[in-house]
Amino acid sequence: MKNKNSSSNEQPTKRARRSDEDSQCGACTRLFSQSSLPKLNSKAGLAHQTRNACEASIKNVCDLCSLICKLAVDEFGSRWGRHHGPIVFRNFNSIKGSRAAVYTLRGTLENEQGCITLYPFTEHGMVIFSHHSNLCTDHGILDDPLGPSISRRPIVRDVQSPRVINAAKKLLYECRSQDKPSEGHEECRYSRDTVLPTRVLQVGVNEGEACPIQLHINDRDRCGSYLALSYCWGATDPTAKNNLVQLEKGNQKHLQKEIRMEDLEQTIQDAVYMTRQLGFNYLWVDRFCILQDDHEDKKREFSRMAITYKNAVVTLVAGTAKAASEGFLNIKPSNNEPFLPSRKFSITMEDNRKGIVYIPEKPYQPVHPIDTRGWTLQEFMLSSRMLIFSDHQLLWQCKQTDLQSVTGDDDGLEYQQGLESLPWAAFEDTAGPSFGAHDADKLYLWKTILRQYTERDLTNPGDRLPAITGIIAELQNVWKDTAIYGHWVEWFIQLLAWQKPEEDRAKERYLSRAPSWSWVSVNGKIHYDETIENEDAKMEIVTAAKATMSCRIVSGDTIDKHVRRTMDQYFDLDDGAQRLETKGKVCHYILLGTAREFERFENAIALIAIEIKHRVYRRIGLAVVADTSIWEGAKHRRIELEPKQK
């Protein structure tokens, strides 16, 4: 998995572009020539070009040389500049007897570690080579002159063939290795057989026959292995025949007797099918394992979300479905285009015919509807293992293995995960040093979680805190700390310095949901741009009901207008809502502490607040102030931050 900010995602320097009718240099053309195959298939390989020669070809506008050069700089760094020899390419193919065409080209430098990889595709041909690959291939019998030279074709979606299911089972076995736990993945050891959740769907298979689906109530702390489902609820399809939408107090006893498959929404049906295919008996689905009309049950089960996903054998992720009614195994033809890289290169063959080769220039980052849902972030971050039903392939990710196809990257798709999962060392309750042992680690981790979480959508904005409760509950156990409305007591002053992006200021503040000092009180994105190095304010009392602090505070009407112009002020609400909130009120600036800028300068970080009643203040924004002297004459005094409204 590539880092999402890596150079592989940088855009190439703008230069003259050639049309698809223009061809590449001779060295690049030879990579796809039939006459070059013996060398490409040999141990010695086929020499391409040195860096100087590549750069000369780039000046002559060889686009493929430009891509090769970029990949080489990313992989070899300065060694590529110092090396005087050419990159040598060799052909690799995992399909037995298929070395009669180019499949995967790996380029190396003599006596240097590392390699660059090219996955060439040609477009024509739609015969599925099902026993070995989900590539469309006709071995070049159509009109593309490159067909006989390149065996990889567009990737047809395959998430449930026997080949794919068996590959997923193999990954699960290797990761868990229950027969030999010492051989399993060390970082994924948390989900051994454990006590089942309060409720699970029993979906198993008995002697090859599917058993009736039943709601199982685990009132005896029964242990076992179960799968979990992560999916988008979405809107209910009014035209659908299935009418069983969720678990409620009124239907719980009925569901314990039997649940008909056809009564379930398509995503739940698909999850039941895959649970059986993978050989498991139990499936946890929030909609059917939490009483949706029981506030106390929801509250209790939300607090257990972390352990539920953490202990699941694997989480099935319905990546492509926008709603539970859509399903994730079979998607609409309009959304099921075979994968072909967008970057294409014209190659002039030995007989002067021209063909087109497609080569990915960077790892593929899937974009799924589920990635925008607030609830699913903690499901992603807390799951030990995931099988992601993506737009082209079934993907695997665990705490030790980066995002990949279950069948490996040989099909030509290298993946990049756009999200950061939680390092499991953060959840280790050990005496020794580990990730999260230092405040800086914890702050970085929590700020990362909040940034990713608040970028997502919630169908019910009132779930802003409940949808992250699972992560909070798990971290509270390990950090031995308490989170009050999403703020850890240990770093309370630091975490008050959140801000709203200018383009996403809130339209309203929900004080019945949380106090104004908490990011939970507003909808939308928040982030932390400033890290306070020296705290000036001190918290005295921090509870859900009350937050008091000793701090220095100055009134906005005492600040020189020239100083005020140099202040960066980030208000929580948009202009219209802010004017209403501050009408007739004076802004006050509560000094939280200072942050260093460019090692030489210090900025003051302050809450912008209005006084609601005597010494009770409501946060309305954050200020970064270059002139820290405005607080020099102020003395520390005790104030209260406005509590949540009842």
From TrEMBL:
Q: What protein name applies here?
A: Uncharacterized protein
Region annotated Disordered, chain positions: 1-22
| Annotated Pfam families | HET (PF06985)
Superkingdom, taxonomy of origin: Eukaryota
**Biased-composition ranges for Polar residues?**
1-11
InterPro entries xrefs: HET
